[in-house]
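Lab notebook, bench 4. We co-purified these components, and the gel suggests they stay together. Before we commit to crystallization screens, I want a quick structural picture of the whole thing.
Request: model the full complex, all chains together.
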Amino acid sequence: GQQLNQSPQSMFIQEGEDVSMNCTSSSIFNTWLWYKQDPGEGPVLLIALYKAGELTSNGRLTAQFGITRKDSFLNISASIPSDVGIYFCAGRNTGKLIFGQGTTLQVKP
Amino acid sequence: GAGVSQSPRYKVAKRGQDVALRCDPISGHVSLFWYQQALGQGPEFLTYFQNEAQLDKSGLPSDRFFAERPEGSVSTLKIQRTQQEDSAVYLCASSLPGSYEQYFGPGTRLTVT
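Here is the predicted assembly.
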């Protein structure tokens, strides 16, 4: 099925570093969402974006909805060990979500 | 308050068996979604309901897959004559009326042997 292109696929960083990941699509989306998934659990919603150009923060997380409506990025500042997990972007049109392949983040204490 | 719950959390089925997976959405959430997540991949849409109406079932991979939500709350995803390629995590999500934010349950991991 259709999926978004998410990069990088994985990251291994030192605690305290900043992280950036992004998501691109050939299709326009009206809403972008970012989720985090821990092993054996369902995705947890981090940030939702509703307008092109919108920049939204949630604690150490910042996400932007691209002007073209075909991309989004997520930044995590000052990473901590509990940031470890898989991060997914998702674009929404007509109800359903289309997900990226995920970015696996590992944080070295 | 309670989140989305799913049962069972794990299911092992022999090839050819039928299975039924249950989802209890968050109270008051009228929209309910089913997704399939293969190992190492992002979730893929299967179907969605608004109240009891199934508005989109375009993601169901074959006519062996069937979903229902007869009273507009609990939903069941049924897979008939399971095949090995059906092995995956099945995720359920729900959302409030007018909201685009979907909240996920923990999933059911189905293994077909």
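The mean pLDDT of chain A is 94. Worth comparing against the SEC data before the next meeting. The CA atoms of residues 86 and 104 of chain A lie 4 Å apart.
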